[in-house]
Amino acid sequence: MQIDNEDTLSKKLEVVIHWSVRTLSILMVFVIVMGVLDVGWTLYQRIITPPIYILTINDMLATFGAFMAVLIAIEIFINITIYLRDNVIHVKIVMATALMAISRKVIIIDLEQIDVMYVFAIGCVVLAMSIGYWLIHQLPRKSHIEE
Q: Quick check: 25 and 80 in contact, CB under 8 A?
């Protein structure tokens, strides 16, 4: 009887997890919509601030950062929906999302106010993530060739 009780508990817990992930996907859509509104508002504020209709480099970097944040949220939403569909976390997509997040950091970084070791550490993370992403893309090819 223990096996049946544990199996019933596992099924109930899986349902809770499934609905939790669905709730997260709904909340992520809300975050994405709010992010798009924020990008629009940020761009509008930058355009109406003197000099009017001109974006400075700092304005563009702030706008790029906001764009990238929304794109990262979309990638996270894709991760959630794929998890709901396949019930598996796809490492390639997670790595791509992480690369996008670290790329956002690199794009918006202000090198004049950052310590050299911080820049070096960011570079190491970008290199490690890039190598990891490349390796993940190489694995299916190698296993396919060996068969």
A: yes
- Tens of pLDDT along 83-133? 888 877 788 888 988 998 998 888 888 888 889 999 999 999 999 999 999
Best CA proximity match to 31, nearest among 70, 89, 61: 70
87 torsion bin: left (phi>0), alpha (psi -120 to 50), beta (else): left
Cα distance between the two ends of the chain? 44
Question: Dihedral of CA 124/129/132/137: which sign?
Answer: negative
pTM, full prediction:
0.74
Number of Cβ within a 10 Å radius of residue 91:
12
